[in-house]
Amino acid sequence: MPERQSSRKDAVRNREAVLTAADALFARRESPEDVTMADVAAAAGVGKGTLFRAFGDRAGLLRALYAARLEPIRQAVETGPPPLGPTAPPRDRVPALLDAVLCFKLDNRRLALALEEGGGNSPYQAEHYERWHSLLRAVLEQIPGLTDCDFTAHALLAATRADLVEHLAGEGHIPRERMRAQLANFATRVLASGPL
Amino acid sequence: MPERQSSRKDAVRNREAVLTAADALFARRESPEDVTMADVAAAAGVGKGTLFRAFGDRAGLLRALYAARLEPIRQAVETGPPPLGPTAPPRDRVPALLDAVLCFKLDNRRLALALEEGGGNSPYQAEHYERWHSLLRAVLEQIPGLTDCDFTAHALLAATRADLVEHLAGEGHIPRERMRAQLANFATRVLASGPL
DNA sequence: CGTCGATACGGACCCAGGGTCCGGATTCTA
DNA sequence: TAGAATCCGGACCCTGGGTCCGTATCGACG
């Protein structure tokens, strides 16, 4: 219930300020967990009360940031051209979807990290995960000969988890393009198997 | 450096007591994060100081518990009979390894969960992950026609992440055997692809 | 068996950080 | 422009991980 927006001018201005400041902070700081709520409030020039009233709790703020960043991709997936859009043939669309997720996580490492570990609630009860999963699953179901599409969707998405991506990009020093190629290759292999 | 064991009788006794108590607590409580260090100390009949001296920090305690539980599997993998042991043919061993990991996580849900989210440090910098990964990778490399074995090993292991397993077993109500079958099927598909 | 140095014990204590509260300021409505 | 509704913000609370240090215990040695 702490989610409904206010129409009061100062409220929306502050909400905006917080979003902007938080975005900047997460981008600048090394690890997402050393950007504290007090930091965000201070950076936004706002009191903690305001911050929490606007977003409920830390997870709420993260979700809001995440949703904003995700918006363009959501658009591209829902109404865009192939291979991301709904008119693409399933075998092309699956790798494209995974690639989009991967790129998103590469571009928003800290944020995705912060949201996925989140201290307590797993990413699997987040609604945005649910969306990706059911979409991917639906696409997989259109590919003949594939079984266990629900599980397969989970397993494929698991390969794009933020901390794995972070690990590979960070300690592993794997460049972006290589990682994309590997994921695409992996997805292809999963889809490829005809009768073995 | 807070890791070297003591030989003093009371010290080992207390260490044992803590391990036992913690094990019981994690098994009993719903979520791993509402078993606090103070709880563990109290349940073990020991002061917090003792607890922290013996294990360094929370992660240290988790690691110790984990290692104890993992020991039999490690044995089976390193010196046991096929299909888990080193003499098994790679195409059989990969699914077997994954199955072993999955079963372990099913049998130790809370513990694995606690260790993998761990608040801060990702599971990917844990040494036990490193071990599974390099083993799996080595086995994959023995399979002709497979490329990107490093990444593939990561991706396969990602399908056994504790929170995913928890999600599937919990909200998804997927029975153990079905999950094992799905994972095996998935692994098989990944390995199956000849020239596409 | 008594003494003594080394080691461990344990709970009071510290601190960070998420989240709450409420008196006062601001904004909308009439 | 009065009054009500809403919002502001920072002082405050609380939980939980981690530390400290005076005291109790251990075990080696005489």
From TrEMBL, chains A, B:
DNA-binding region(s), residue ranges: 36-55
Keyword DNA-binding (UniProt): yes
Domain of life: Bacteria
Protein name as catalogued: Regulatory protein TetR
Pfam (any one): TetR_N
Domain HTH tetR-type per the UniProt entry, residue ranges: 12-73
GO molecular-function terms, A-Z: DNA-binding transcription factor activity; transcription cis-regulatory region binding
Signal peptide range in chain numbering: none
Record keywords: DNA-binding
Keyword DNA-binding tagged: yes
